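ingest -> validate -> predict -> emit
validate: passed (alphabet ok, no gaps, 128 aa)
predict: started
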Amino acid sequence: MKPRRFATKTLVALILSLALFAGNGFAADKLASTALRKLATSAKTPADYTKLAKHYEAVAAEHEAEAKEHEALAEVYAKAPTGKDQKHPMSAQTVGHCKTYAEHCRKLAQQARAMAADYAGMAKQAGH
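emit:
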């Protein structure tokens, strides 16, 4: 294996491991699927709506972290091209794939934040 290719793969592995193990503090607020479905259909109190708002803030944070991870990977691939961009455009390990996926994740984060804001508003209304 060529030294440059090895260094690139090592850097990619490091970025991925940091992304996987970095705690964002929001994981505790994310609800399990069954709990989310149940709470979304039965929420009545400010506390219920606040839990839902926190869940969607946690989801947004996860999507933002994924976007940052893929932006960093795009930079790595741009600095050490592997030839995959020309041979297999938009496949994994290409700049195009990483940039497109980062943009996708940012849109999902924006939508999750909008849902969190909606639930926060419902929590305020339920409290009055």
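The chain has one domain: 3-126.
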